[in-house]
Specification:
Chain B: This is Gap junction protein. Chain B: Belongs to the connexin family. Chain B: One of its GO terms (cellular component) is connexin complex. The complex is a heterodimer of chains A (262) and B (219). Chain A has nine helices and three strands. With 262 residues, chain A is mostly helical. Chain A has a domain of 160 residues: Up-down Bundle (de novo design (two linked rop proteins)), CATH 1.20.1440. In chain A, strand 2 and strand 3 form a beta hairpin. With 219 residues, chain B is mainly α. Chain B has one domain: de novo design (two linked rop proteins) (Up-down Bundle). Chain B contains eight helices and three strands, in the order αααβααααββα. In chain B, helix 6 packs antiparallel against helix 7. The chains are: A mainly alpha (262), B mainly alpha (219). Chains A and B meet through helix 1, helix 3, helix 4 and helix 5 of A and helix 1, helix 2, strand 1, strand 3 and helix 8 of B.
Chain lengths: 262, 219
């Protein structure tokens, strides 16, 4: 069980996302999860071993380390990534529920059901409309909230995004104010700024997706009000083609990600 | 053999679960298993090396560590995850038994082997009760073994061969405490989900039973 399993779970949601949603997922996996696993974990790997205080007093190092790093950067990022990926599960559950209902209709032999067999139901792509629109929009909203909360928590806990080289500590049992040196402060600062930058990009993508969905919703509403007769089949065919193309592009990107993360 | 095995097991269980059961599987995967593997394991990785006592007496540190951590938090966490996921196997075995029976008799004995009714309903309810039981047992065990869910930064130790009462310092106590509280919160969430699923199933099937009897009586 690792990040690859999360990718499998979220990959299913990808089919039903908008284009911006697919870009968000790609950014999440390539620029956040992969960077975390491949690079950031190594940089923070030896953080307590190489945290050195200018004292021989046993216990001083432990206490100072705990005082300055109540929760390590790397763990905070891992939690942030888990929480930010979770709202997509709501969409996955909603889609699964819809599929289940359609399968039940099909089995009952309902004439309203337009599918020829169960395989078609399994492979079918649902458009983001009706209740699924609400689920999808709330999942984007929650994503935004989690991103913002974690970024603020980071800023609040570490007084900004810079990693200082030297920290002065006078927690008991340190006999007096002691100098403690952090290992690899510059590398850690670089990665922190990188992760914050990518979080901001993800926030922007989420905001753009939210605006896109709202705009589409209001346009559709005004179209329906203005023109009751319209041709849904033609619109759906064009959308389906565009989405299939987007799917092909994002699938090929993600296949390279799977190769790296496994 | 690793957590991937548990993941595959739970994915198999997902097929025969109710809606709440599927939410439970998602919570266990994402908020417990993934957090354990991606974050928590590394916090406790060097806990013995980083446990430091204010003494040079050989053996004192080892003895004190063993005294205060008879079973490490992270091992208890792993055991809890395994024990809590295992009752779901009962359901999988029962469905496999049903399918085998159908094959053996070469006729359709059940409406659908995976449908939760009759014997399978009892098995499902038993698995829910066992899951909840294990969750509660482990939470109580955590509480009793470590006097609550707090991790102190200093413990005083006077076990032989330490010559007197010695100060011992635990590494990363705040981070460990945060993740322990996270573990407790997700366990409680899982207990709530299991209890709601239990009530939902009991309620649904009592209504079904009652309606059947009512219709029979009328006839």
């Amino acid at each position: 069980m690792d990040w690859g399993a999360l990718h499998t779970i979220l990959g299913g949601v990808n089919k039903h996302s908008t284009s911006i949603g697919k870009i968000w997922l790609t950014v999440l996996f390539i620029f956040r999860i992969m960077i975390l696993v491949v690079a950031a974990e190594r940089v923070w790997g030896d953080e307590q071993d190489d945290f050195i205080c200018n004292t021989l007093q046993p216990g001083c190092k432990n206490v100072c380390y705990d005082h300055f790093f109540p929760i390590s950067h790397i763990r905070l990022w891992a939690l942030q990534l888990i929480f930010v990926s979770t709202p997509a599960l709501l969409v996955a559950m909603h889609v699964a529920y819809r599929r289940h209902e359609k399968k039940r209709q099909f089995r009952k032999g309902d004439q309203k059901c337009e599918y020829k067999d169960i395989e078609e139901i399994r492979k079918q792509r649902f458009h983001i409309e009706g209740t699924l629109w609400w689920t999808y929009t709330s999942s984007i909203f929650f994503r935004l909230v989690f991103e913002a909360v974690f970024m603020y928590a980071f800023y609040f806990m570490y007084d900004g995004f810079r990693m200082p080289r030297l920290m002065k500590c006078n927690a008991w049992p340190c006999p007096n104010t002691v100098d403690c040196f952090v290992s690899r402060p510059t590398e850690k600062t670089v990665f922190t700024i990188f992760m914050i930058a990518v979080s901001s990009i993800c926030i922007l993508l989420n905001v753009a997706e939210l605006c896109y969905l709202l705009t589409k919703f209001f346009l559709k509403r005004s179209k329906k009000a203005g023109n009751p007769k319209h041709h849904p089949n033609h619109e759906n065919k064009e959308e389906t083609k565009q989405n299939e193309m987007n799917e092909l592009i994002s699938d090929s990107c993600q296949n390279t990600v799977i190769g790296f993360s496994s | 053999m690793s957590w991937g095995f548990l993941r595959d097991l739970l994915s198999g269980v997902n097929k025969y679960s109710t809606g709440i059961g599927r939410i439970w599987v998602a919570v266990v995967f994402v908020f417990r298993l993934l957090v354990y593997v991606a974050a928590a394991e590394n916090i406790w990785k060097y806990e013995h090396d980083e446990f430091e006592c204010n003494i040079k007496q050989p053996g004192c540190e080892n003895v004190c560590f063993d005294h205060f951590f008879p079973v490490s938090h992270i091992r208890l966490w792993a055991l809890q995850l395994i024990m809590v996921s295992t009752p779901s196997l009962l359901v999988v075995f029962h469905v496999a038994y049903r399918e085998n029976r159908e094959k053996h008799h070469n006729q359709k004995l059940y409406k659908s082997p995976g449908e939760i009714d009759g014997g399978l309903l009892c098995t499902y309810l038993v698995s829910l009760i066992l899951k909840t039981g294990f969750e509660i047992v482990f939470l109580v065990l955590f509480y009793k073994l470590y006097n609550g869910f707090k991790v102190p930064h200093l413990v005083k130790c006077d076990v032989r061969p330490c010559p007197n009462t010695v100060d011992c310092y635990i590494s990363k106590p705040t981070e460990k405490m945060i993740f322990l509280y996270f573990l407790v919160a997700t366990s409680c969430l899982c207990i709530v989900l299991n209890l709601s699923e239990l009530s939902y199933l009991i309620f649904k099937y009592s209504i079904k039973c009652y309606l059947k009897r009512y219709i029979k009586r009328r006839q």
